[in-house]
């Protein structure tokens, strides 16, 4: 895809030349830290969904914050545009250059800096892979307060830059609360650091909060300090079948009341998402008694297995007795827990498996949440675009799932090919629908390139002006992640 219908290259940005390459080579000392050959560039130029494709000619992979600073200072002076990139698992095209921007990858900055086993504070480089950080914490009896399906690839810095939410936000809260400090390089090369901040610090503006969720438009995050909870010693997973969305909400209310402090995840999935995931996993669904319109995955995390299991079993028995749950299973061991989780965590991959996927990551008041999937489906059917089995139709189906406990729906429109007709059918329809329900057009994935023209559906003119003022103040040349949402 080219973006010529959406945006033009801004001629204020300089085009890369030999002199620049010499300069970067000099800073990075070792040629291995620069990528400029076509084949190796491919991974960095294309996003996880294979939907966005940039044309960068250069990836820089610095090893130190000072190198990042020198790179940014030079790029600012030369007006060379830069896209910070973590694990490149973002879902809104934010980590991909639009034209020839330089990609600044944090993947060589991957060291744990320190861990305080009394306070639970972890300090690490931004390029540490989330799963590696969590494995390190596990050895120390702690857990990273964020978990998501992309953990094997995404970076700690990348999740902060997107303010990712994930599977346990319900339990551990947002990164705006758990991140204690950041180290970052501003567009002019200034190194900002609050990495030594402690749990409480009320000394003036909390600048790091601007960087959390800034999607690479305000600074390059190079280090993160984060407060980590003790790792639960007992975890249980239940998978339930439910006959209506109305009832899913009742199960949620019951789970919060009865499981209270041990509830650590409440995920919901519609039947269509499970059908697609089953095709993708080539496996039989864990609930064998039939196809149900909705499923719920409940996780508990605590410190006493007998106590937690008893609570979960009582909850499930009551829910079945009251007719809220039609069928359900509780994992008996770790392997079964993981297997149940895979029916939730594999949905993003399954959704793209037939060719591509249009993703809408939205917050909507709970009572209306699933209505968006039904509305999108009706719209696509009216346009005669959908057929799950027929290759003649471009759309496989619209599925809904997500972090119900956080009021966060993922509407995925699974397609055989990316196609302007599908996009026009869905946009701005989906965004208008969300606005009408006072929702947000991005609950957790951000705006990136995908939603650059739609910010007005969720932010007022005053809010947008404040965002632009801040951007212009810290990045007057606009070199950091241009053409995206700001
Ligand atoms: P990238 O994709 O590389 O970058 C994302 C954005 O951050 C870009 O705008 C980039 O410019 C910027 N950026 C990256 N690193 C830095 C840095 N060091 N400094 C400044 N800017 C930077 N998200 C959720 O919220 N919840 C989920 O449950 C969830 N599950 C997912 C499951 C799968 C299978 C996938 C593929 C994605 C999922 N995501 C989820 C999307 C989520 O946004 C990303 O996985 C993650 O936040 C991005 O991290 P990354 O290191 O890959 O960043
Ligand atoms: C998830 O919750 C992620 O699995 C990805 O946020 C959602 O792919 C999606 O739409
Ligand atoms: Zn999600």
From TrEMBL:
It comes from the Eukaryota. It is found in: Mitochondrion. Keywords: FAD, Flavoprotein, Metal-binding, Mitochondrion, Oxidoreductase, Transit peptide, Zinc. Its main location: mitochondrion. GO terms for molecular function: (R)-2-hydroxyglutarate dehydrogenase activity; D-lactate dehydrogenase (cytochrome) activity; FAD binding; metal ion binding. It catalyses: (R)-2-hydroxyglutarate + pyruvate = (R)-lactate + 2-oxoglutarate; (R)-lactate + 2 Fe(III)-[cytochrome c] = 2 Fe(II)-[cytochrome c] + pyruvate + 2 H(+); (R)-malate + A = oxaloacetate + AH2. GO terms for cellular component: mitochondrion. Its EC number is 1.1.99.39, 1.1.99.40. InterPro entries: FAD-bd_oxidored_4_C, FAD-bd_PCMH, FAD-bd_PCMH-like_sf, FAD-bd_PCMH_sub1, FAD-bd_PCMH_sub2, FAD-linked_Oxase-like_C, FAD-oxidored/transferase_4, Oxid_FAD_bind_N. GO terms for biological process: lactate metabolic process; malate metabolic process. Its cofactor is FAD. Residues 52-231 form the FAD-binding PCMH-type domain. Catalyzes the oxidation of D-2-hydroxyglutarate (D-2-HG) to alpha-ketoglutarate. Also catalyzes the oxidation of other D-2-hydroxyacids, such as D-malate (D-MAL) and D-lactate (D-LAC). Exhibits high activities towards D-2-HG and D-MAL but a very weak activity towards D-LAC. Belongs to the FAD-binding oxidoreductase/transferase type 4 family. This is D-2-hydroxyglutarate dehydrogenase, mitochondrial.
């Amino acid at each position: 895809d080219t973006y010529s219908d959406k945006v033009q290259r801004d001629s204020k940005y300089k085009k890369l030349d030999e002199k620049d390459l010499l300069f970067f080579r000099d800073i990075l000392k070792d040629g291995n830290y620069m990528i400029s050959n076509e084949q190796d560039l491919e991974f960095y130029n294309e996003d996880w969904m294979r939907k966005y494709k940039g044309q960068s000619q250069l990836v820089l992979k610095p090893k130190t914050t000072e190198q990042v600073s020198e790179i940014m200072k030079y790029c600012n002076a030369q007006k060379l545009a830069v896209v910070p990139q973590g694990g490149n698992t973002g879902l809104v095209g934010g980590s991909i250059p639009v034209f020839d921007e330089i990609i600044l990858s944090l993947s060589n900055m991957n060291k744990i800096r320190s861990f305080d086993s009394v306070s639970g504070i972890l300090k690490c480089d931004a390029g540490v892979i989330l799963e590696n950080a969590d494995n390190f914490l596990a050895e120390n009896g702690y857990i990273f307060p964020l978990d998501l399906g992309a953990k094997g690839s995404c970076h700690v810095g990348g999740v902060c830059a997107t303010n990712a939410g994930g599977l346990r936000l319900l339990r551990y809260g947002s990164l705006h609360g758990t991140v204690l400090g950041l180290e970052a390089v501003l567009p002019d090369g200034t190194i900002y650091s609050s990495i030594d901040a402690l749990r409480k610090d009320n000394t003036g503006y909390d600048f790091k909060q601007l960087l959390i969720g800034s999607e690479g438009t305000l600074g390059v995050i190079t280090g993160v300090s984060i407060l980590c909870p003790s790792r639960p010693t007992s975890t249980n997973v239940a998978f339930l079948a439910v006959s209506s969305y109305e009832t899913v909400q009742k199960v949620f209310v019951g789970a919060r009341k009865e499981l209270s402090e041990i509830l650590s995840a409440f995920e919901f999935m519609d039947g269509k998402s499970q059908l697609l995931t089953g095709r993708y996993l080539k496996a039989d669904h864990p609930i064998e008694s039939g196809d149900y319109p909705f499923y719920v995955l409940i996780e508990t995390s605590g410190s006493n297995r007998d106590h937690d299991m008893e609570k979960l079993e009582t909850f499930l028995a009551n829910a079945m007795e009251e007719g809220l749950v039609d069928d359900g299973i509780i994992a008996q061991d770790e392997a079964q827990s993981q297997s149940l989780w895979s029916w939730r965590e594999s949905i993003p991959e399954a959704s793209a498996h037939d060719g591509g996927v249009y993703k809408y990551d939205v917050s909507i008041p709970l009572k209306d949440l699933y209505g968006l999937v039904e509305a999108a489906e009706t719209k696509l059917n009216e346009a005669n675009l959908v057929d799950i089995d027929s290759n003649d139709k471009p759309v496989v189906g619209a599925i809904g799932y997500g972090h119900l406990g956080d009021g966060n729906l993922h509407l995925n429109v699974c397609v055989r090919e990316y196609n302007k007709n599908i996009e026009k059918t869905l946009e701005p329809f989906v965004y208008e629908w969300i606005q009408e329900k006072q929702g947000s057009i991005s609950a957790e994935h951000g705006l990136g390139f995908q939603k650059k023209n739609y910010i007005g559906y969720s932010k007022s003119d005053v809010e947008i002006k404040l965002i632009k003022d801040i951007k212009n103040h810290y990045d007057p040349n606009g070199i950091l992640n241009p053409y995206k949402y700001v």
